[in-house]
Write the structure tokens for this entry.
Amino acid sequence: MTNVPLSEHDGTVTHPVTAAVARRRLLPVVVLRDARAAEPLASALIAGGLHTAEVTLRTDAAIHAIRAMATLRGFLVGAGTVLTPAQVDRAVEAGARFVVSPGFSPAVVRRCQDIGVPVFPGVATATEVQMALDAGLDTVKFFPAEQLGGAAMVRALAAPFPSVRFIPTGGIHSGNLPAYLAQPAVLAVGGTWMVAPDLLAQADWNEITRLTQAATSAAGEV
Ligand code: 3PG
């Protein structure tokens, strides 16, 4: 296992998959209704410079989409909206390399730890960050980020927890993205803005690539 030191921050990211998410700095949150869109979507993201996606288990197509994306060389796919240990097993069996939850579920976290898969549970308060720390985690999703106070809230919440890294998600778009990326405690920024449901419904791969390019270039500039 590699230890990847992250600049401007006291923490280190100890799992290689978490380190890979950290290098990419962006986590598109995908809600796919048709698994046949998985491959063109991944290609559109790759064309925009991003080799990662979180596929949410909110649709029947999600597991098939994870399976399809997991076969793409160099593409890192994770499962989102994971609410139960059984969903952890299904997603990981399909090829998910990491697991994201909207909140902190001890059962989901434990199942991921038992099988050695990185898990990023959602937190909204300092109490939940401490629950994550107690569970031995170093990375959490901060959700829903904008509604909870945005980048300023991430900064305030991070202050007492120098070893914790955050993946703010919820209400983030190209306009407020730089404020999040500028926070040293932010491991990566998640959201649907690059892969918005209407773009997926219209199969507008060019626009997805354009938005992804804009985001990767913003991430490169910080
Ligand atoms: C999530 O599932 O993480 C959020 O619903 C994504 O939020 P967004 O659509 O505001 O980016």
